[in-house]
Amino acid sequence: MSRAINCTRIGYVYLPTTDLQQSVAWYTANLGFELINSFEDRGSMLAVLHHPHKHAPALLLIETRDAQRFELSRNGRGFPVMAIACLDIEKAHRDLTAAGGEVEDLHVLGNGEAKYFYFRDDQGHLLEAAWSIWDTEDEFREGLG
């Protein structure tokens, strides 16, 4: 008996912003996203950003008047709302630190099988940059990157 799978992957992630142009500029300059489209939806602007990897979910930045910093709480401490896979985690750490943002220390797990650090975007959302030996390789989209 085969099981039909209707939902196959995460399609996109929403993050709010009070300044859409500033956030688009931050994500493209610091994390390698590319702006695909922007348009009005239900009374506010949104921007669709993609990484050049073929199977990466899209990031949708939603403009709002409501200033809010997204982060989860894990045992009373901040925990990121999204993790971004990095091919070279040390370079990502150096680059984000040099850009002047709020960047925490790089952490190594086990015997170096995984590495990560937390950082905040231009709106203060808590994000994670991560690398591990278990990360899957992906193809690049045509026309991006």
From TrEMBL:
Pfam families: Glyoxalase. It comes from the Bacteria. Residues 9-132 form the VOC domain. This is VOC domain-containing protein. InterPro entries: Glyas_Bleomycin-R_OHBP_Dase (IPR029068), Glyas_Fos-R_dOase_dom (IPR004360), VOC_core (IPR037523).
